[in-house]
Recover the amino acids of this structure.
């Protein structure tokens, strides 16, 4: 049963690798234009948050048109969106292999305590910088 499970995981990994390799990008990546998020609405309509340089725009799209709804200029909203983006991109770069190894890796209690202490120390430093 363990061998069959290992075989199934290997086939899934192989399919993931082939699909990733076979998928062609329609457009070249551009570091200045980034889609932060999208929300589908009824009838083929959607709202998109798009970051262009340091500006963030709310864009509405329908089947036959794209319209600028507004530019987000409020400092608090911009900071909140940038914070959310940084937190989402932190875990987004993991490959399937790294995710599997994180799941099956055994962590000792001493390592988790050290990591927790480092995390708390970093949080305290951030709080002191804000003051």
């Amino acid at each position: 049963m363990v061998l069959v499970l290992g075989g199934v995981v290997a086939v899934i990994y192989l399919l993931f690798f082939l699909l990733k390799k076979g998928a062609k990008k329609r457009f070249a990546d551009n570091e200045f234009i980034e889609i932060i998020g999208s929300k589908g609405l009824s009838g083929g309509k959607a709202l998109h948050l798009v970051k262009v340089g340091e500006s963030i725009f709310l864009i509405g799209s329908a089947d036959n048109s794209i319209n600028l709804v507004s530019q987000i200029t409020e400092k608090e909203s911009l900071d909140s969106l940038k914070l959310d983006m940084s937190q989402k991109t932190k875990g987004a770069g993991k490959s399937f292999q790294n995710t599997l190894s994180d799941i099956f890796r055994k962590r000792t209690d001493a390592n988790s305590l050290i990591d927790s202490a480092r995390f708390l120390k970093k949080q305290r430093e951030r709080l002191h910088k804000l003051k």
About this structure: The helical segments are 2-22, 75-92, 96-104, 109-130.
